[in-house]
Give the backbone structure.
Amino acid sequence: MNRFYSLCLVAVTVFTLKGTAQTTNSLSKSWVSDNGDGTYTNPVLYADYSDTDAIRVGDDYYLTASSFNCMPGLPILHSKDLVNWELIAYALDKQPPFDVFDKVQHGGGVWAPCIRFHNNEFYIYYPDPDFGIYMIKASNPKGPWSEPLLVQPGKGLIDPSPFWDEDGKAYLVYALAGSRAGVKSVILLNRMEPDGTKLVGNSVMLIDGHKNHPTIEGPKIYKRNGWYYVFAPAGGVPTGWQMVMRSKNIFGPYQDKIVMAQGKTDINGPHQGAWIDTKTGEHWFLNFQDLGAYGRVLHLNPMKWVNDWPVIGVDADGNGCGEPVRTYKKPNVGKSYPKMTPPESDEFNGNELGLQWQWYANYQTTWGFPSGGLGFFRLNCIPRPADAKNLWDVSNILLQKFPAAEFTATTKLTFDARFDKEEVGLIVMGLDYGRLTLKREDGRLKLYTATCKNADKGTIEELVSGPELNSNMVYFNVVVKKGAECQFGYSLDGSSFTNLGNVFKAREGKWIGAKVGFYAIREGIINDAGSADIDWFRVSLP
């Protein structure tokens, strides 16, 4: 019998999933993968859940992904059928070191994590490329999760994957980031203490990918039929392929084989992910596709075993290398489950901020807070950093992922500006960004739009002046069309919107997709602050 040791499913615990921030999960109005006829269409998540890893525990599937500098971090998603996913928690409330991540650190923080279930506990190993490899664990995937433990300090250590063998020995496979380590395109293996708390001994190189598999990274280690397997993408994120290595000895030598590539499809760079099995004996692979401004979106591909090699996707020519699928039959998990998607819209009626929201840095209490029964989210105008040339270096930006190729985000807010030069706005954030802003000037409220090209380079914004408003209650929206083209608009009645500014083409952030949400800032330090009460935020089709 095949045993999928990396899942450690000897003892299975049944977990009851109870909502934390939201008691209900409304179905997305912009993208649903489940076609309702026994098939699904990729991506299963049209959102930036990059560097995906997932496991099965009994009848339940759990997934986590990179979060970089965005907090809370390490999202935990749950599914019963691998197609319909619910966002249930975050494993990381604050990111250490706190003195670093209390301010925005674009592209830093949580890179590709790995989730495992071992000895009735959930483990996540995640790398911070500037500080080392951390481990957290929990008995329940919804938490509480332990404080991050630095398992191995070091610069440029990325993409860790733990493995506990049947003899009780433990190992960690990982890669190197050339930008920090000065070395890349190699996969390394280390012995690890059985409790998973630290590495022991020297690193052993399993493969040098420079010749045949450049930029090899994202390794995941498994065992099947006496073979050790390392799944690892190579060739670059938007342009690469999925490679698998195997050996009868965990230290090698390893054979390697390309098992999925773009081929004749329009699905570029099928990149790193997770091998998942079902109780019914099927095998599947969750991986991501880089779509630029839309981020790295999640795909589900069938997988089969041929001569003890995995074949991912559909292998039409029988050469052992599959191509990714667009539409396919859903996994057979024994029964059918209802459609489900991560949250997008938010009425802000609860005591917790919706799980779809993240800040650009570790949350500070003064930035904003739910109002409970008052029915809004209070966003305070925080002093803009004195050295900030644009909003790229502002930490108190509240954002969520793009949810589809096309959508409209609409919000209702009331701005209580107490001082001149306070402002609140709806923003689409990335390396380029655009925003629609309500600002107090000379005691009056005025609308602006602004765009900023190459914000990460310190470029100055281009402002377009709009009308003055006699009301401090206003509706904002942004209509996003294919190609991430965005048009901002405003309304005083919530039904008739007037476009303001030119069409703005969104761009990805630093290793993340573009995001949409809010900011509130002021100039100078004042012993009080104006604020905006966000009544609701709703996502729909354009």
